[in-house]
Write a structure and sequence with these properties.
This protein is mostly helical and 265 residues long. The protein has one domain. It contains 12 helices and no strands. The radius of gyration is 20 Å and the shape is globular. The two termini are 24 Å apart.
Length: 265
């Protein structure tokens, strides 16, 4: 069987579960907006009582929270957190599973290069994320349009939503480089959760300090939804930084995987 299709089949159940989880999350959160919009002023007063660093850490902007895009960008922070876990878990497991399941020897004796193996796994992982994002985008578009009380910019909504995929790619390649560097990963979930939550906490800290340089440390701060809403654009420096990181991580993964001694036992 084609390795690409084999990997897709292997991660079919996982992709379905994560996709439905993100869909349920956005449906649940956005269904709260009609009730929230009626009590916006009361909510703003409550939020004003919180220190500004706390509001920034929670991703709350008082100026925009009353709009459907402002509310969506607030809940999107936590959607991205879940999506990052999916991507990190996928990246960490898709290569290391051959050693963990003791099938590496069988796979590497086949008449295919390690480069082709890595490419097939990478493309399968990307396809899984694309499927998740397409389904999420369709459902979130319907939900936002359904609950919106005023006109909103679909362009800005799309720009915010697609950053889920951008962040996931970063965690995917990070997971892959971790999987090829570590000799053997017995359990993927602790590594995935630990890594993602560490970067998420760093992101909350960066939000409280306002240090622009520190934003480069965590993928969660590469796309500022407040900036996107105000300027209808991304910050170019972070786009370049992400592209550089992805290229470097993928290149390093191929190099290490080519030279790595892979043992199935």
């Amino acid at each position: 069987m084609n390795m690409f299709l084999h990997e897709l089949k292997s991660y079919r159940k996982s992709t379905i579960i994560w996709t439905f989880s993100l869909i349920i999350l956005v449906i649940l959160f956005m269904s709260m907006f009609p009730a929230f919009s009626k009590e916006t002023e009361a909510f703003k007063e409550i939020m004003k009582s919180f220190p500004e660093p706390v509001r920034k850490a929670m991703g709350i902007s008082i100026d925009s929270i009353s709009s459907v895009l402002g509310f969506y960008s607030y809940i999107f922070l936590y959607t991205t957190l879940c999506g990052a876990i999916q991507a990190m878990n996928l990246g960490t497991s898709i290569v290391s599973k051959e050693v963990r399941d003791k099938t590496a020897d069988f796979l590497l004796t086949k008449p295919v290069t390690r480069g082709k193996i890595m490419t097939s796994k990478l493309m399968a992982a990307l396809t899984c994320l694309v499927i998740t994002n397409v389904a999420y985008l369709v459902v979130s578009t319907i939900m936002v349009s359904f609950v919106a009380t005023k006109e909103y910019s679909y362009k800005i909504f799309f720009m915010i939503s697609i950053t889920l995929f951008f962040v996931q790619i970063m965690f995917l390649v990070l997971g892959i480089i971790v999987s090829v560097v570590m000799p053997k990963i017995k359990s993927v979930l602790p590594i995935s959760l630990g890594t993602v939550f560490t970067f998420f906490i760093i992101g909350m800290f960066v939000a409280t300090t306002g240090d622009s340089a520190m934003r480069y440390i965590t993928p969660f701060k590469y796309f500022d939804t407040t900036y996107i809403i105000k300027n209808s654009s991304y910050e170019g420096a972070f786009i370049i930084a992400e592209a550089g990181f992805i290229i470097l991580a993928i290149t390093a993964s191929y190099v290490v995987y080519y030279k790595k001694d892979v043992h199935a036992s």
